[in-house]
Design brief:
three-stranded antiparallel β-sheet; disordered C terminus; alpha/beta
């Protein structure tokens, strides 16, 4: 059939259960002590700077063993590797070589602009927001000048491309996560023929469904990324499927699905289809007991996700049921408590496999 297979690689961080982190957190003198981003607290015990986590709260977590903070741009269970350390870069490249030797056709690199950070740990500037219209996530209240998208990132991507070019017919796709400079970063990371082959951003994953938005996004790339190459995507696992996300613009979901795929196929660049998009799949709510997403479990928001496929393929209706005790003021029903207990066991098995109890 001529199919090619590329695999997802999340290189910016590991699990806290990874042997590298276990060794790194043991003390400040072990061989991997500098493999992660460690920093001393401020004199008052506060984190070293104001960098936030994408998933809420500080991007720094205190570790009592080293008596230092470690950086995590995402969950505290996902400590960031220190890409300023050449040994870390070499180790990560060895992982990629492992898969290339086994014949994969390339990689989709997650959060490709998060690899390096500012060595001086300077604080990010604030992003102006009207007080009566603040974002739901405080992460959006900063311009992330120092916590990601650093110049050193480009040099590491060149090393990745050099490795990939040792194997014929391989390709590199990068996910650029930035709400302010995504198009510029896409251009920087794909131009010159020595970094990524293509990159995509979240610009077309937004709620905006207008001619002006699509024109601005596409023209902005070709103006600012001469010699670069984009990948356009309208849905993925991080956002609500576009057939549902843009439902207010059309009377029927099928109309949105047909219009969107026609547009996507017409855009200059490489198109990316999210599973289920080929049949116009819409979103659905999940039952609370189905949760495995760590962020969603703790956020209290309505849950949407890839399990929406069940609605179209199996005719299932997955909904979060109201607690019978809610009217009495209780925040957790017995059903919810059971789900929380199950979730804790899943989390323990995932991140602490040697101590999990079932």
């Amino acid at each position: 059939m001529g199919l090619k297979v590329i695999i997802d690689q999340v290189l910016s961080h590991t699990s806290i259960a990874h042997p590298w982190f276990t060794e790194s957190r043991a003390d400040k003198t072990n061989p991997k002590a500098d493999w992660y981003v460690w920093a001393d607290p401020k004199p008052n015990g506060a984190p070293p700077n104001d960098w936030p986590s994408v998933f809420g709260g500080s991007a720094w977590t205190w570790d009592a063993r080293r008596r230092q903070y470690y950086l995590h741009n995402f969950l505290d269970l996902q400590p960031d590797l220190n890409f300023h350390n050449a040994e870390v870069q070499d180790a990560v490249l060895d992982v990629l070589r492992f898969w290339l030797e086994r014949g994969v056709d390339g990689f989709r690199l997650d959060t490709v602009n998060y690899f390096t950070h500012d060595k001086q740990l300077r604080e990010n500037p604030a992003k102006p927001w009207p007080k009566d219209d603040l974002p739901s996530n405080p992460y959006e209240m900063q311009i992330h000048t120092y916590s990601k998208s650093r110049p050193e990132n480009v040099e590491f991507l060149k090393r990745v491309r050099k490795l990939t070019d040792e194997y014929a017919g391989r390709t590199l796709v990068g996910e650029v996560g930035d709400s302010d400079f995504a198009i510029e970063l896409m251009g920087e990371y794909t131009s010159g023929g020595d970094k990524l082959h293509m990159a995509y951003s979240f610009d077309m994953l937004s709620p905006d469904f207008s001619v002006a938005h699509f024109r601005r996004t596409i023209e902005g790339f070709w103006k600012g990324a001469k010699g670069g190459w984009p990948m356009w995507s309208m849905s993925n696992h991080d956002v609500i499927r576009h057939v549902t996300r843009w439902a207010d613009y059309e009377a029927a979901p099928d109309q949105i699905a047909k219009l969107a795929i026609t547009m996507l196929c017409a855009f200059e660049g490489t198109l990316c289809l999210y599973q289920g998009e080929e049949i116009g799949l819409t979103e659905t709510d999940l039952d609370y007991s189905e949760l495995t997403d760590l962020l969603a479990f703790g956020s209290g928001r309505r849950i949407r996700g890839a399990m929406a496929a069940a609605r179209r393929w199996y005719g299932m209706k997955l909904r979060r049921r109201a607690s019978p005790l809610a009217s009495l003021g209780y925040r957790s029903s017995p059903r919810r408590l059971r789900a929380q207990s199950q979730f804790k066991r899943r989390r323990q098995a995932l991140f602490y496999p040697t101590t999990a109890q079932f």
